[in-house]
Amino acid sequence: MMTTAPAPEVLLDHQGNQRATVEMGLGYEQARLGTAFHEAGHAVVAMAYGVHVVSSEVVAWFPEPGRYAVTGQTFYEFRPSMPWQFAAQCAAGTLAEVEYLLTHGLWTPQRAASCDAEHDREQAIDMLAGNGHCLGRDRVPAGGKSWGQVRGMARRRVGLLWREIRTVAHAMNEHTKLTGDQIAAMTGLTNAPLPGGAV
């Protein structure tokens, strides 16, 4: 646990803007584990789709006595040939975090709404648009899909992979950062090699 904030870039979204912060009304340990579930959702669903995962981690610190802040980050390969799977793994973090709240008796409508990481949705929209695919926020664009549709894809994957997500989340909460190969070893999933064998 850090006492000072991480490097500024850790707190930025894919466009270099400050990510939104929310108050969930949880204790430090509960919030940290919830973030671990969020990042585990990204990592496990991405890996299950055959994407190379580099690492996944919880970033937590105390900006001042009695006050904590927590976020996370997951690094993986983007495959332009798998646009909807990429979007689904972006949605999987929020869904895994909400499921954590439900299974741990912490769910409230406000906390569930606070899990909705808009930066994940916006990254999916921008990355897909840059590769010729249309992902709509609240509608199905011609020739594309809506965020609701890819959330449906993600919901099914999170349900099928809940045991693996739970395993990774608890390990991440304990160790802070996991490599893709560590995640593969503990879940039995395959961490696909990067094209050309580069790491």
Describe it for me?
This protein is globular. The two termini are 28 Å apart. The chain contains seven helices and five strands. The model has no long low-confidence stretch (mean pLDDT 90). The strands form two sheets. It has a three-stranded antiparallel sheet. It has a two-stranded parallel sheet with strand order 3-4. By secondary structure, it is an alpha+beta fold.
Strand-helix topology:
Blueprint: H1 28-48, E1 53-64, E2 67-76, H2 83-103, H3 109-114, H4 118-129, E3 135-136, E4 145-146, H5 147-160, H6 162-175, E5 177-179, H7 180-187
Parallel strand pairs: 3-4
Antiparallel strand pairs: 1-2, 1-5
Helix pairs in contact: 1-2, 1-6, 2-4, 2-5
Mean pLDDT: 90
User: Main β-sheet: number of strands, strand sense, barrel status?
Assistant: 3 strands, antiparallel
Q: Report the sheet-strand fraction.
A: 5-15%
Roughly how much helix do the residues carry, as a percent range?
A: 40-55%
Order of strands across the main sheet: 2-1-5
